[in-house]
Amino acid sequence: MPVTTSEFVPADLDATCFENIEPLFLALLDRSVESAEALDLWLVDRSELESAYSEAQARLYINMTCKTEDEQVQGAYTRFIEDVQPRAKPLGFGLDKKQVELVEKFGDGERMERYLVLHRDTRAEVELYRDENVPLETELSKLSQKFDQITGVMMVEFEGESRTLPQMGLYQESTDRAQREAAWRAVADRRLEDADAIEDVFDEMITLRDQVAHNAGFENYIGYAFESMHRFDYTPADCSVFHDACEKHVVPMLRELDEQRRESLGVQTLRPWDLLVDRLGRNPLRPFSGGTDLVTKTRHAFAGLDSELDSMFKTLGDGSTSQGVDGGAMLDLDTRKGKAPGGYQYMLDRTGTPFIFMNAAGLHRDLETMVHEAGHAFHSMFCEDEPLLHYRHSPIEFAEVASMSMELLSMPYWGGAQGFYADENDLSRACRQQIESSILLLPWIATIDAFQHWIYANPDHTRDERAAQWQSLDERFGRGVSWDGLENYSLRSWQRQGHLFGAPFYYIEYGIAQLGALGLWVRSLEEGQDVAVKAYKKTLSLGGSRPLPELFETAGLKFDFGADTVGHLVDRVRSELAKLPE
Ligand SMILES: [Zn+2]
After folding, report:
1. CA of residue 281 to ligand 1 center, whole Å
2. What is the pTM of this model?
3. In this structure, what DSSP letter does residue 393 have?
């Protein structure tokens, strides 16, 4: 396409203010577009406006998470969400409608190929929209909020103090089995108190979602969800194929590892509170101390992996500055008071720079988060020259390949005197942990996904039927633990998976992406690291401009979740694990 730059949006536009952006939205809505070239320009102009809008939100969000105690910063974000977003949304939908018409009118041949992904995603938005679903969506948001409220206030009285559930989670790593059991039961009992209230919320959600789907002309919510999530490259039947492949190849390995765990722990039967403790009773790994050390050692790893990735990572800074994005820092790594939990990478779409946020405390999982978010940042940087915003972001099924691959491909460079693990035993332990966790997540993803397919295919089920379905999925995909005497808890343990409530069907993406990341890692083992990294970079630079099968193909991978693909990956995982001493 000839047009790549836009002068439509002023460089100094303050897009946090609706009064500033409204005239630009209206100008695009009113503009008469009479040729294919005019369409190209219109799309680039729209993209530029939405980049400015997206960056405004990103900056407010970043500041909010970096300064949770600053009321002004908190208020600015809330104002944007409550005041600007609801007014901008209908304007954006108006542009969607106009865009679909324009692309259908002027997009032919090569141009249509270029706009293929953009067009099918936007058309889905327009086709699914129903006036009568707007109040139902509001109702669903409120229910989702209600779920968050019920679970968010859960506290447990434990060892003389009142504690949150995430705080209680730390006890699951304790080497004292009695303490683990007491902590586990305390949390399970607390959840049980609200289990009926949560069932009520979920029942209402299922009914409403089924109605939303019917209103939009679908037989049930599954078809609606697939279209609304822009899943055009795989079907519910493909998801079943993934479930079967996990059952056949991953579950046996999961059960073997659990049996090894049982033996190492020296217990008669493995119980739900035995799953997170180090099976040899060792202290947690300590790969670094502090944000600048984390950056230095991450640089060491990327320098070993690839010189281009290394220099890209260097542009993000040394991790010494923090406190939000306005000072120009792109990393905010150390955990501190007044910072939101978690970790993320957020692309500033207009200036084209990525920002990485995390709460590093010196643990292995922080190393994992750092290289993971760096992978997202590489993705953003590789497609920063793409004129269309929509193509600068790829669907999660591939976006997470970019990040999860880095967790595996950087592994060979975690060691050495300058690395995270100078001690060979620590290195081996860390790599084992990384490889195991990357494959063992798959059966849980299959469980949650299969559960949702059953739920929305049978929206009139009873609670007992739901519990029975959950139990049968646990037998099919679950860990090698005994739930004897704990049935009360196990039948409703699905309630801890928040995605079921706030983000239905959103989960299998991580399974698909993990297969892609493992696939790239296997390529690095079989064809050499340079081949894998080259394919990685080439695919990342496509952003989201091509359908998923093409993205996977560019990475030298088959877009396939079947038994052959999964079986091959599991075989490789087994042989690599066999080389690593405990
Ligand atoms: Zn990610």
Report:
1. 30
2. 0.94
3. S
pLDDT digits (tens, 9 = 90+) for 429-454: 999 999 999 998 999 999 999 999 99
pLDDT in tens, 114-134: 999 999 999 999 999 999 998
Whole-number Å distance, alpha carbon 106 to ligand 1 midpoint, is 36
Q: How far is the CA of 373 from the centre of ligand 1 (A)?
A: 6
Compute the average pLDDT of residues 458-465: 97
Distance from the alpha carbon of residue 402 to the mean position of ligand 1, in angstroms: 8
User: What is the CA(101)–ligand 1 centre distance, in A?
Assistant: 34
| Residue 321 pLDDT | 66
**What is the distance in A from the centroid of ligand 1 to the CA of 442?**
16
DSSP 386: -
| 493 DSSP 8-state letter | G
* Banded model confidence at residue 301, pLDDT cuts 50, 70, 90: very high
The span from the CA of 493 to the CA of 397, in Å, is: 26
Residue 369 Cα to ligand 1 midpoint, Å, equals 8
275-296: pLDDT as tens digits: 999 999 998 899 999 889 999 9
Q: Give the Cα separation of 393 and 407 in Å (integer).
A: 20
Q: Which residue has the tokens 């990525």?
A: 354
- pLDDT of 10 > 90? The answer is yes
CA 123 to centroid of ligand 1, rounded, Å: 27
Six token digits for residue 122? 């936007």
Residue 87 has pLDDT above 60, yes or no: yes
For residue 376, report the distance from its CA to the centre of ligand 1, in Å: 7
Bridge partners for 128 per DSSP: none
Residue 424 CB neighbour total at 10 angstroms: 10
Contacts of 426 (CB under 8 A, 6+ apart): 285, 287
CA of 127 from ligand 1 middle (Å) equals 29
Asked whether residue 323 carries a pLDDT value surpassing 70, the answer given is no
User: Which segment of 193-202, 328-337, 468-477 scores lowest on mean pLDDT?
Assistant: 328-337
Ligand 1 centre and the CA of 396: distance in Å?
8
Q: Distance, CA 372 to ligand 1 centroid (Å)?
A: 6
Between the CA of 406 and the centroid of ligand 1 the distance, in Å, is 11
Ligand 1 centre distance from Cα of residue 11 (Å)? 30
**In 15-100, at which residue ranges do the beta strands (DSSP E only) sit?**
none
Q: How far is the CA of 343 from the centre of ligand 1 (A)?
A: 9
Tokens in use for 154?
């859960």
Q: What is the mean pLDDT of residues 65-88?
A: 90
| Spatial distance between the Cα atoms of 212 and 234, rounded to a whole number of angstroms | 22
Token pair 């190849």: residue:
249
**Contacts of 307 by beta carbon, 8 Å cutoff, 6+ apart:** none
Residue 12 class from Cβ within 10 Å (0-12 exposed, 13-18 middle, 19+ buried)? exposed
Going from the Cα of 246 to the center of ligand 1, the distance in angstroms, rounded, reads 22
